[in-house]
Design a protein that fits this description.
This protein is mainly α. It is 67% helix and 0% strand.
């Protein structure tokens, strides 16, 4: 599993748990909707640390939470 696949799985789960949309997360994190959708659809092959930090802060989770290998 690649790091982007891990981020995708965790991000998708967190969005669902918090009951927010990509649009809301975009506003909270100041990360474009297209970037967030690119992560969720694995269209982005990589992302930068600033983006991961912004998303983690908006979700009120740690970066480790986003990077933690999910249970399969």
């Amino acid at each position: 599993m690649t790091i982007m696949q891990i981020i995708k799985k965790n991000l998708k789960m967190m969005i669902e748990e918090k009951g927010i949309s990509v649009a809301v997360l975009s506003k909270l994190s100041n990360v474009s909707e297209s970037t967030i959708r690119g992560i969720l659809n694995l269209k982005l092959k990589t992302t930068n640390t600033k983006t991961v930090i912004k998303i983690a802060n908006a979700l009120n989770v740690t970066i480790d939470d986003l990077l933690k290998r999910p249970e399969e």
